[in-house]
Amino acid sequence: MASQLDQIEVNQNKITMIKNFVNAAMIAFSAGIILSSCSENEDQMPSEGNSNARLFATASEGSSGSSNSRVIVNGFSSTEFTVATADMELRYAAKADIQAGINLGNITLKTNVNSSLQTSAAQTKSLTIIANGDSRAALVAEGETPEGNYAEAEFKLKKNTTVASSDPKFNKSMWIKGQVNNTEAIVWSETEKTIRAMAEASSGVEVEGQSEMVLDFDMTKLFAGVDFSLAVDGNADGKIEIGPNGVDGNTLLYSRIMSNIDSAVTLKKRN
To answer: 40 lies in which domain range?
Structure first.
């Protein structure tokens, strides 16, 4: 009888040891998850005075407020719009200056050069902002950038060398495909020029914490004063081209579009 009782006691001790081991393991596992979670949150937190920001580009019909629908302006129905950018930087009023009550117009703007957002944005990018007839948001860059009110973005239209040489967009800084009176039409340029996009709001775009901005290519402004009913297929190949060097005989239309682009891009807060 005593032997049986001793055996029962031994078994109970083993069970207690196993329970203690399991509990200790669960506690260690839970602590590891908590520490890992804290570490991930710390990794995601920007350094002091900075924001984690993302910058996008899109196309819209401007005053219509439509940035997720088919883009049709002045009889040109856009099915694809790709623009190549490079050397982009943003200018902002420091958060401390804004908090001090200084009017944005009286503040000397700083540049976000050397921030991780600007380093990414400065690279040559091929941005498709209309696809299959619908506007879309293309990511330009993401990273840390100083907190403040962002008043402008400056970038260069760049010949697109990121696509294959066989791609019709190769070496084009701007390439818009669509239709005019049921005829295929292409607006394209090889021009490399600097574009200065001003903020939509007079107070700029406030960047703090997690923030998103967007460069809005306003198709209404881009095609302002352009009468596409005058576009011709000069070489009778079944496609209307509006580009440099008098291609297809649409020089005046091309010149108007290229003069419009300087004021067609706006920096906005992304909703």
So the answer is: 1-45
